[in-house]
Amino acid sequence: MDGREDRVSIEIPKWLYDKVAERIKGTSFSTVSDYITYRLQSEFSEEPVYTEEEERKIKERLRRLGYIP
Asked: How far is Cα 38 from Cα 68, in angstroms, rounded to an integer?
């Protein structure tokens, strides 16, 4: 299986497609569809985005900057 089974098509405005295409130039994403799929999977993932250690470092940096107590 190539991961392309059970797919559907969606429509987005051309200007948005063009913006995404520009953003992914020079990245590991080979298509706009791959990028959008990745972003949607991240949005709906139940796993934490950051590890506990990464989250601790982020919070510490925000504290030092005065954004959180």
From this structure: 30
